[in-house]
Write a structure and sequence with these properties.
The chain is an all-alpha fold. 58% of the residues lie in helices and 0% in strands.
């Protein structure tokens, strides 16, 4: 589209979900993916019989964090929707496991990443998907960003 002077209008700046604050979000997801994977592997490998449900949920959480990390880092509409699914599943998981572990502590003789809404991890597992979904909403495909324009002074 041309402006009144005949020059082409500059393209609106595009922001990708894997840039700026998105990089920090991806890094935190990566740390949680590594931590949950290591914890689940250790628990399953050394003491699975003590709390199989909790340890399998830890492994599931590790998989969700890994998928979220990869999908948030990848460009494209398909990866965006995979991110929404992974981060949404994480939110449902932390709310469900958090509530269930609060109501029936005997079912969780050992903690998972999502037990008691992530209390063992400073409640970051509860906050992370909320921030993730908010970031995805702000960086959804097709979102039109308004270029910054200089304001003209009001007519005299």
């Amino acid at each position: 589209m041309n402006n009144p002077t005949g020059d082409k209008a500059p393209a609106a700046p595009t922001r990708h979900r894997n840039s700026g604050p998105g990089r920090l979000l991806i890094a935190v997801y990566g740390v949680f993916a590594l931590a949950a994977t290591a914890r689940a592997a250790f628990q399953i490998g050394t003491k699975f019989a003590e709390a199989p449900l909790a340890y399998l949920l830890s492994a599931f959480a590790a998989g969700v964090y890994l998928l979220a990390t990869v999908s948030l880092a990848m460009p494209g509409k398909r990866w965006f929707w995979i991110s929404v699914g992974a981060v949404g599943l994480e939110l449902v998981g932390v709310l469900t496991v958090g509530l269930f572990s609060l109501l029936d502590p005997a079912a969780f003789p050992s903690d998972t990443v999502w037990s008691l809404f992530g209390r063992g991890y400073g409640f970051v597992p509860l906050l992370l998907p909320v921030l993730g979904l908010w970031w995805l909403y702000l960086n959804r495909p097709g979102r039109v960003t308004q270029p910054t324009t200089e304001r003209s002074s009001p007519p005299a």
